[in-house]
Amino acid sequence: MITKLIVRGLLAGLLAGLFAAAFAYAVGEPRIDQAIAIEEAASAAAPAAGSHSHEAAEPAAHSHDEDEALVSRDGQRFGLFLALALYGLAVGGLFALVYAFLRGRAGPRSEPVLAVTLAAAAFGAIVLIPFLKYPANPPAVGDPETINQRTVLYLVAVLIGILAVAAGAAAYRYAAQREPWLRWLSAGASVLIPVAVALILLPEINEVPAGFPADLLWNFRIASIGTQAVFWTGIGALFAFAARGRSTG
């Protein structure tokens, strides 16, 4: 049975990854192109502004020439689909393993509802909670010197999200014999309190350059979290569809 669940998870993850890639291509790629255009315009303007003295000595010798990207934009777009497909396969396999562990032990008894609930919880823990503190930025935004710090802080935020959601599930289960409103209150408080404390205590990172278009930044972030929402909705719905015949009600 576990083998069937893993195969089901791999297929659901692969399809969800391709759905997410299609969304990112349609909604996110135009924002990236705009951000790259702004970055290139700024790079072109910087030497022009400060090169009056040495321009004569070095006539156009190095126009920072064309710091050509290692991978073309077309290659990056292809890589978007490839990366999200591989990401979907990996996450789909893990999703199936967690689902198999929870099945019959915790969560809704209905298998489709369990699949959808697990996908929603994963989206909240892994995507939404870290996003509230460290939202995604376009490629033209961010200091390369701080990339390690930003990576570590983001992983810490992901860990906090997972622990908070797990604490909420445990609190709900612990209060199983209580009134429904008390179960939900316990679960909500167990999630929201540690998340709120973490959002306050974790260091701020704001590397958006002055003058960067606010609407472009906002639209890119919406596209980024929308891609993840499409992915987790897809994996939950597809896994639930595959499991519908085995629901125990």
From TrEMBL:
Q: Does the keyword Transmembrane helix apply?
A: yes
Any single Pfam family the record assigns to this protein = CbtA
TM ranges are: 78-101, 113-132, 152-172, 184-202, 222-243
Output the InterPro entries linked to this UniProt entry: CbtA_put (IPR012666)
Signal sequence span is 1-26
Q: Does the keyword Membrane apply?
A: yes
Keyword set, alphabetical order: Membrane, Signal, Transmembrane, Transmembrane helix
Designated name of the protein: Cobalt transporter CbtA
Source organism per entry reads: Streptosporangium lutulentum
